[in-house]
UniProtKB/TrEMBL annotation:
It comes from Candidatus Berkelbacteria bacterium CG10_big_fil_rev_8_21_14_0_10_43_13. It holds the Pfam family PD40. This is PEGA domain-containing protein. Keywords: Membrane, Transmembrane, Transmembrane helix. PANTHER family: PROTEIN TOLB, PROTEIN TOLB HOMOLOG. The keyword Transmembrane applies. The keyword Transmembrane applies. The chain crosses the membrane at residues 12-31. It comes from the Bacteria. Belongs to the TolB family.
Amino acid sequence: MNVELKKIKRTVYIVGAILIVATVLLVWFFTRSFLTITVSPRTASVLLDGKKLKVIAGEVGINTSIGDHQLKIEAENYISENEVLKLGRGMNKKVNITLSSTPRPIKINTTGNLLMKGSDFNDGYYFSGSAIFKAKVGISENGNVNVIENRPITGDVINDIKEIVWSPDKQLALLRHSSSIGLFDFMKYDFVHQTETPWCPNGGPFGGGNDIGSIAWSPDNSKIAYYYTPATGERSLIFTNTTNTEITRILNFNQLGIDNPVLRWSPDSEWLIIVPQNKNADENKIYMLNTYSRELKTVVDSGNNIGAVFSPDSNHVLYTATISGQSLPELFLMNKDGNDKTDLKIQANLDTVVWTKDSQDIVVATTDPATKTQTIFRFDTTSVTDSGFAISNLGSTNIQSIAFSDDGKLLLYESGNQIYALKVN
């Protein structure tokens, strides 16, 4: 009887152990996925959720958990790619990625600055020598960047330019000189009849440009906003017409403790961002003015902010702030009402950041802290992750400003007082 009982117990133990092992294996199988990644070039690095995997002959296999995973493939002299993988229970997923070679930038002009995106999807404007130029680029049938147009749209009559503030249709521009501001009429590029007229409050002298700080032309062309700071001590936000002859004082900046603010419109012309540049950086908060109701509210209550820019759909705002110990400012994102603030963990100047047309991604040109070289990458502001392309071998090029084509295929940028075009897709 005892022998028989022992046999029964042993059988129960064995069956129980088998069931436990089977259950563990079953649970493991249904909570794991097998992933095979094949890359070209075979020397490319593979990172899954930020962890570098061991690649053998261009392939890597790994058991991993189910759910979303961030895959990044990168190699020297190639455009990096990022992809979100959705892995299900017991899935055997294969991913094949071939990186594209890093494109070489095309030099449009050996001298040029003050780059601005144009009215078309693939053009831009810049200042060179003593004239303003228009450049249009495209992609040829063989896939190379093609300069379709690069010509002056003014005569050689423009000198000492510090800033160009364009009208929405690019038919007019405010030209800031060292001590004056002029309104320039391009006359549809008729060089003979182009004119520059003084643009000063109440028809004041041409030198009155010293009284005017930041200028912002509303996208709907209904008004121009500027910071007015005459020698009398007045500090005001002014709304005016194109010729600066119909002036309305909107805000008294002295009462608000705001000095030398940066002004930026929302694309729908309803909101005006105001970022002070006070000597005490702790006072540099971010304000939002509703230009219809004239209501002013603080949307970023902390200081040390530098600038801000709306997304194309006017729903979100990118802004930069100085961070102690960093050589470049930090990039943040928020809703236009100031809620849902997010530190994007990106260091870049705002002039080298542009939104994509769909208001979801941004394109960033900045210095890689690790390699100290320039890198250009696309970043998804919804998932707060790298997305699309990354070009990381531009050397020590110092990019000052960028303009992104509406179709997402071309990038114009200014570097070392030269203008370049780069294929990015």
